[in-house]
Amino acid sequence: MVGRTATGVLLAAVLGIAVLGTTLAALPTAPTAVAPTLSVDGDRLVLTHRAGETVDVRSLDVLVRVDGQPLARQPPVPFFSARGFRSGPTGPFNAAADPRWEPGERASFRVASTNRPSLSAGAHVTVELRRNGRLLAVLSATA
């Protein structure tokens, strides 16, 4: 009887450790803390990383909306030339640059006239930044 009890206790301990380990592994990691800003000048969107952690833009998704409507083509950062955008984005959004977006650094891109909806004066522009699917920031400005 003592052998069965010891085996049962050992089995319960092993099972408990396995469950705890699985639960801890499934816990989400701490979110990245960033404080970017957005400005719009004509067809150029400028994002400035004001404070927080350095962000590798290769893991960043950028979603642009104009007056609530998503652009038909979204910026595939980092890039140099992409459909729906004028060539030569700046800062870490440029594929030839260091992909680490650091506090104090600007990144910009220009929306091509072929992308829809078009950027017109007075349009409300919203940019959503996600890293590995997690929302980092939602920014807005007036064109």
Automatic annotation (TrEMBL):
This is Type IV pilin. It comes from Haloplanus litoreus.
